[in-house]
Design a protein that fits this description.
Layout lengths: L1 H29 L4 E4 L11 E5 L9 H15 L5 E8 L5 E4 L12 H11 L8 E3 L22 E3 H10 L3 H10 L2 H10 L17 H13 L5 H11 L17 E10 L5 E10 L5 E9 L2 H20 L2
Antiparallel strand pairs: 1-2, 3-4, 3-9, 5-6, 7-8, 8-9
């Protein structure tokens, strides 16, 4: 019975998110007002459970910032600072949304550690977080791409909670490898596929592709607590708030603003770099989600483009 009720709860939340998104998209064109209603009495720090759609409250109309961002990206591409950019912006408490190149596919690679973490929380019992695992295989022995040095070392023993923390905070690949092996592969793939991430082969990042809009949905379901329990959603966003990545989107934000982040920097054999950055920015009473994906061969300029987009969005939202 519990399993059936949990499934019905999940289906209801997904329908609610879809209906809200559809209503906002339709009314934006008609210049009407629709918003999402979130639980106002929640004691959680990082989540705000979604309750319903509401057509009475005002929501964020991007206005000039939308065109300004598009002009900026086109100029950056024309100036050869970046070859391709996609971004997704969403105000999380009322659903105001806009995007650019939202359907363009990128290689997410390390970004898939977030849906892997979500899959961990779906499959394990809370008591398993302290279960100890000895690392006997390196990520380099399994996967086809190169890695930075990892904090999780071979032949050392760690709890699942430690592996989860290292994977999300420091993007540790050995931690991700062993969490992946610990889980039921079929159930993990189901989690990925529910969010539009189709994996042909776990061992090569070239088999992965995802749009910025699809990836942003992972952050949305955590913030809305619509896929995991409230406690698990809060836990993952709390870990992401300790991210070690301090450049990109973060570099243009005031230091005292709380964030939750997942990032990825990857060099491909053809010298092309994929640099992606996705954050929840907990700005006062108006938290928002910003995800940016870039493709080119100049890390410095790609990070600058991401930082500039972040600064423009923050300045616009802070004036509302």
């Amino acid at each position: 019975m519990k399993k059936i009720n949990y499934t019905l709860w999940f289906i209801w939340n997904i329908i609610l998110i879809y209906v809200c998104s559809l209503a906002i998209a339709q009314t934006y064109e008609k210049k009407q007002v629709v918003s999402e209603v979130h639980e106002s009495w929640s004691d959680y720090e990082f989540i705000s459970p979604l309750l319903e759609c509401n057509n009475d409250n005002e929501y964020y109309n991007p206005g000039p910032i939308r065109k300004n961002l598009e002009n900026y990206v086109r100029q950056a591409v024309k100036s050869d600072n970046v070859s391709e950019v996609a971004y997704y912006v969403r105000l999380l408490n009322n659903g105001g949304t806009f995007w650019y190149n939202e359907k363009t596919k990128f290689i997410p690679a390390s970004l898939v550690k977030l849906p892997l973490a979500i899959s961990v929380m779906r499959q394990i019992h809370p008591t398993e977080l302290e279960k100890l695992i000895t690392i006997t295989t390196s990520a380099k022995d399994i996967f086809e791409w190169d890695f930075y040095d990892d904090n999780i070392k071979l032949w050392q023993t760690y709890s699942i909670h430690t592996l989860l923390s290292e994977m999300l905070i420091h993007s540790d690949n050995n931690a991700a490898t062993w969490l992946l092996e610990y889980l039921n592969t079929e159930k993990t793939l189901q989690t990925y596929e529910r969010f539009g991430l189709w994996l042909v082969d776990f061992t090569t990042d070239n088999s992965l592709n995802m749009s910025v809009k699809s990836y942003a949905s992972f952050f949305r379901v955590l913030y809305n607590s619509s896929y995991l329990t409230r406690e698990w959603s809060e836990k993952l966003l709390s870990l992401l708030s300790n991210s070690s990545f301090k450049i990109g989107i973060r570099s243009s934000l005031p230091i005292d603003i709380t964030i939750a982040n997942k990032y990825w920097v990857r060099s491909l054999p053809n010298w092309e770099k994929h640099i992606h950055d996705c954050w929840i920015i907990y700005y006062t009473d108006n938290p928002y989600l910003l995800c940016v994906m870039t493709r080119w061969n100049n890390e410095k300029w790609q990070l600058q483009v991401i930082s500039d987009i972040s600064e423009m969005v923050y300045e616009d939202i802070s004036r509302k």
